[in-house]
Design goal:
EC number: 2.7.1.11
Largest sheet: 7 strands, mixed
Structural class: alpha/beta
Subunit structure: Homotetramer.
Enzyme class: transferase
Function: Catalyzes the phosphorylation of D-fructose 6-phosphate to fructose 1,6-bisphosphate by ATP, the first committing step of glycolysis.
Shape: elongated
Order of helices and strands: EHEHEHEHEHEHEHEHEHEEHH
Bound molecules: 6-O-phosphono-beta-D-fructofuranose
CATH architecture of the largest domain: 3-Layer(aba) Sandwich
Number of domains: 2
Number of strands: 11
Subcellular location: Cytoplasm
Number of helices: 11
Strand order of the largest sheet: 3-2-1-4-5-10-11
Length: 319
């Protein structure tokens, strides 16, 4: 009989619990034993593995964070460290592992797959930066958290006629900044995938003020520069009263949205289905609203791209 293990790894994301729940329930539904690996790859190496029952995933679909805990484990790159993890799985007769995480976590899964453990990746990260899926689990929730913060900041920005610079997460990807900028009506969106000319930003703020604009919102992705660096750069060109806001880890927390819960449920269950069909070394995703699978090699082939049309639209709407 197949035995499946599941872990969450890298930065946590709202909806990871829903994906974990789906993996456990779908496995049990199919009559498969399922094991939870606690604390990501670190827990795999430390043998922090427990057999799970239906009740272990009760009352978690609505919770942020990850009940399986997460950790970053740079040592996992070492073959002898990975071997310990493989031995811990094999000692229990576990031959398959589902990894819920970002592309860093997928790299560990790819190595394990080459070394005899069948693995499937489930995209769990707020960054939306993984190839082979239109959306990652956690992106929608983080986006809504950011938009809520931008709306609040806009209120005070208007009252005080200030320019606000809001720094958002995303590592080296601009999806969160771009989507939040469009949804929050930001005047300027700075993302790593497009050139950032602060002189042009300054000129646009000035033109806006001359037209009677009371405030300006700049959303800067952390992969471009920090909010304080952006403020410093801006003040080289114009004399504006700026305030900087770094949204930080609050973007990673909170109840997952309904969209993230449904996405996580679909992808978690699909990962189990693929393992049952004998597929491994792949990541699951959602593309054009259909479930899809992409080999890890293809996922890593190129850097994730932003939606160019959405970026152009953001420019057109923020004139
Ligand atoms: O990958 C998710 C993410 O939240 C990124 O957006 C951010 O750059 C990073 O993780 C922060 O990592 P840590 O929690 O280790 O500070």
């Amino acid at each position: 009989m197949k035995k499946i293990a599941v872990l969450t790894s890298g930065g946590d994301a709202p909806g990871m619990n829903a994906a974990f729940r789906a993996v456990v329930r779908k496995s049990i539904y199919e009559g498969i034993e399922v094991y939870g690996v606690y604390q990501g790859y670190q827990g795999l190496v430390n043998d922090n593995i427990k057999k799970l029952e239906l009740g272990d995933v009760g009352d978690i679909i609505q919770r942020g964070g990850t009940k399986l805990y997460s950790a970053r484990c740079p040592e996992f790159i070492e073959p002898h460290v990975r071997q310990k993890g493989i031995d811990n799985l094999k000692n229990r007769g576990i031959d398959s592992l589902i990894v819920i995480g970002g592309d860093g976590s997928y790299r560990g899964a790819q190595r394990l797959d080459e070394e005899g453990i069948s693995t499937i990746g489930v995209p769990g990260t707020i960054d939306n930066d993984i190839n082979g899926t239109d959306y990652t689990i956690g992106f929608d929730t983080a986006l809504n958290t950011i938009v809520d913060a931008v709306d609040r900041i806009r209120d005070t920005a208007t009252s005080h006629e200030r320019t606000f610079i809001i720094e958002v997460m995303g590592r080296d990807a601009g999806d969160l900044a771009l989507w939040a900028g469009v949804a929050g009506g930001a005047e300027t969106i700075l993302i790593p995938e497009a050139p950032s000319d602060i002189k042009v930003v300054a000129e646009r703020i000035e033109t806006g003020m001359e037209r009677g604009k009371k405030h300006s919102i700049i959303i800067v992705a952390e992969g471009v520069m920090s909010a304080s660096e952006c403020g410093e750069e801006l003040r080289k060109y114009i004399n504006v009263d700026t305030r900087e806001s770094v949204l930080g880890h609050m973007q990673r927390g909170g109840k997952p949205t309904g969209t993230d819960r449904v996405l996580a449920s679909r992808l978690g269950a699909f990962a189990v289905e693929l393992l049952l069909e004998g597929v491994s070394g792949h990541a699951v995703g959602i593309e054009n609203n259909s479930l899809s699978k992409t080999s890890f090699d293809q996922v890593f082939e190129e850097h994730h791209k932003i939606d160019e049309r959405l970026y152009r639209l953001s420019q057109e709407l923020s004139i």
